[in-house]
Amino acid sequence: MAALEKGAFDDAVDKFELLADNGFVHPDASFDRAMAYIERARSSAAQPGDLGRAAAALHETLLLRSEDPGAELALERVQAEIARRRTRAGAKEVNARQTLARAVAGVVSENTWAGGALLGSLALCAGLLARLLSKRPAAKLGGAIAVGVGMLLLVTCGVATAAARHYRSSSRPAVVVVPEAHLLDSGGAPVKRRGDAPGSVPEGSAVYVKSQVGTLAEIEWGTTEGYVNRSQLRLLALR
Question: The pTM is what?
Answer without folding.
Answer: 0.83
